[in-house]
Amino acid sequence: MAASCYGMAAISCGSSVTVRGFGVGNQFFVPSSLKRNVNFRGDEQEQAPASSAVPPPPKPTPPPKPKVKTGFSDVLAFSGPGPERINGRLAMIGFVTAMGVELANGQDIFSQVQNGGIPWFLGTTVLLSLASLIPMFKGVTVESKSGDLMTSDAELWNGRFAMLGLVALAFTEYVKGSALV
């Protein structure tokens, strides 16, 4: 008798009620026209009526990318994109060239500069500086050109290590008084 009264309460209140031992799957079926969103068990969340379903909020649009400043003083500012990139690229070329000439001829870095290295240094500096600055003045960032293997962060770190390597090479050869190799 208690089970049938409990079942009647479910129909009159309009909710699906679990009654142990009765019905298929231990649940009474209540038509949706009779449901009033009453929760008898307490562990189920109330369901909103189908007619008042609220659509999900629209996805927010991503913020626009900040405009890249392309002025001369912006690109070559102390914290700008130009100085460290250019110095790092020049250091990478300089370190590899200095080591290559040292292995080929046995000259230390100071002998290389004294024996005609200044025009090569100036030419390389101008060429790499222009090749680095022209895209920066057009608003192209190195991050936009990064790939999976060749990333902008890897270039920065390689340039930093090359700068340290070039200074360490010059210092070591100065202290030693001859070529490193």
From TrEMBL:
Residues 54-65 have a biased composition (Pro residues). Residues 43-70 are annotated as: Disordered. SUPFAM superfamilies: Chlorophyll a-b binding protein. Keywords: Chloroplast, Membrane, Plastid, Thylakoid, Transmembrane, Transmembrane helix. GO terms for cellular component: chloroplast thylakoid membrane. It is found in: Plastid, Chloroplast thylakoid membrane. Pfam families: Chloroa_b-bind. InterPro entries: Chloroa_b-bind. It is a multi-pass membrane protein. Belongs to the ELIP/psbS family. This is Early light-induced protein. It comes from Buddleja alternifolia.
